[in-house]
Design brief:
Layout (H helix, E strand, L loop, with lengths): L8 H18 L17 E3 L2 H10 L5 E5 L11 H4 L4 E2 L3 H6 L4 E5 L4 H9 L4 E4 L5 H15 L2 H15 L12 E5 L4 E3 L4 H8 L3 E2 H4 L5 E3 L2 H7 L3 E4 L8 H4 L14 E4 L12 H18 L1
Parallel strand pairs: 1-2, 1-4, 2-3, 4-5, 6-8, 6-10, 10-11
Antiparallel strand pairs: 7-9
Helix pairs in contact: 6-7
């Protein structure tokens, strides 16, 4: 007898596709390439935390079928209370298909196999990118609002963003306080990221960007000490025990003792592009003003 072997990835993918197609056919859904519809969707499933936040702010509540579990966690989401009104999905193609959505909103980094599979069984998937500028944030909100038939809500959200950021200073000049957003893993936020844009919007200089770090790059603690930023921004809740705060006790950082202002910013405020960014920038702006006052 020939021993059984584990199915190869291609075979498993084919099996999953067959199951998903069978589910789609059983539910009366077209088993073929997805075609974008111009009508406002009536059954929306979101498969990405940042997509959740925009869908929950823009779509009519009765049209939302499911959001991700991450959006229901108040430590990670700014819309946790609203998200808990809906069933959570794990981003699996089979479960999403059973929800019979006419639109799935996903992110650029949503599991590609799931996104591709949903498209192959005829479900429209709208993929959201990762904005790096405020203009791109507005364009994404406008695009999603148009597809959801929620143009008025999208315009109102954009207006809210503009109003909240209206009195911000220009991008940090050479005399502006310097800052580094540092993660316990040793990564700093560089140029080409939305957080870099927000740092500049708050009137700060991003030292990591000036060192030509792109997006998120590795920055050794020794280099951090050498750069000696005026402000060290930690992705953490204020006062909460976290690895980010424990990092401050590292012996290498003794050289910064008393010379740097540490500012915690809850990650949920700027992980996604939305109105919570206003609060994140306000925190940075307050730190910039306090630093300038101490000079």
């Amino acid at each position: 007898m020939t021993p059984l072997s584990a199915p190869c990835p291609a075979g498993m993918a084919g099996f999953v596709l067959a199951v998903a197609t069978a589910i789609a056919v059983a539910l009366g859904m077209p088993a073929g390439p997805a075609r974008a519809d111009t009508a406002a969707p009536r059954r929306i499933v979101s498969m990405n935390l940042c997509a959740d936040e925009l869908v929950l702010r823009l779509a009519e509540p009765g049209r939302i079928v499911s959001v991700t579990a991450l959006s229901q966690d108040p430590e990670q989401s700014t819309v946790a209370e609203a998200a808990r009104r809906y069933p959570a999905n794990r981003g699996l193609a089979e479960e999403v298909i059973r929800m019979e959505p006419d639109l799935v909103v996903a992110g650029r980094y949503t599991t590609r196999s799931t996104v591709d599979l949903l498209k192959r069984v005829g479900i429209e998937v709208m993929e959201l990118g990762v904005p790096t500028t405020l203009g791109e944030v507005e364009a994404q909100i406008e695009r999603l609002g148009r597809r959801l038939g929620a143009e008025a809500r999208a315009k109102a959200l954009i207006a809210r963003l503009r109003e909240g950021l209206a009195d911000l200073p220009q991008a940090g000049s050479g005399q502006a306080p310097s800052a580094i957003v540092y993660r316990p893993s040793g990564f700093a936020v560089g140029k080409g990221s939305l957080i870099d844009t927000l740092i500049a919007a708050a009137g700060l200089r991003n030292l990591a960007a000036e060192r030509t770090l792109d997006n998120y790059g590795y920055l050794p603690l020794e280099t951090l000490v050498t750069l000696a930023p005026d402000i060290l921004v930690l992705n953490a809740e204020p006062g909460a025990p976290a690895l980010a705060h424990e990092m401050l006790d590292h012996p290498v950082l003794e050289g910064l003792d008393g010379k740097v202002r540490t500012v915690p910013v809850p990650p949920r405020l700027w992980t996604c592009a939305g109105p919570a960014m206003i609060e994140a920038v306000a925190i940075l702006k307050a730190a910039a003003r306090a630093t300038e006052a101490d000079r």
